[in-house]
Amino acid sequence: MNDFLLTLQRSPFLQAENTRLVSATLIDNPTQIEFAEENNASRVEVTLPQVVQYRIESTLTDLPASELLQDLERNLAVGLAARIEALRNKGVLTP
Fold first, then answer.
1. How many CB atoms lie within 10 A of CB 81?
2. What is the largest distance, in Å, between two alpha-carbon atoms of the chain?
3. What angle do CA 86, 65, 54 make, to 5 degrees?
4. Residue 55 and residue 9 share a domain
5. Residues 57, 71 within the same domain
6. Same domain for 53 and 67?
7. φ and ψ at 27, to 5 degrees?
8. Do 35 and 14 share a structural domain?
9. Whole domain around residue 16: which residue ranges?
10. How many domains does the chain have?
11. Extended beta strands in the chain, E state
């Protein structure tokens, strides 16, 4: 969990100082497991370990998308990156 929070705080898309863990609670694992039924199959019971349910709050960065172009391309947000590049090519945005 700590690594995930640190990764979010390093993201250029979020404001690091406003990214924080609000709550963390140990809960029973909600994952449902199903086995295919076979003839003469014995019943199998699976007990999953508990998991942490957490809530994180953050604020998006104030930087315009045009300043985040390299980060968008690196994260494969090609649609938005392509639109920004098209606006630059038309002179609507300056690099």
1. 20
2. 71
3. 140
4. yes
5. no
6. no
7. -130, 165
8. yes
9. 1-61
10. 2
11. 20-27, 51-57
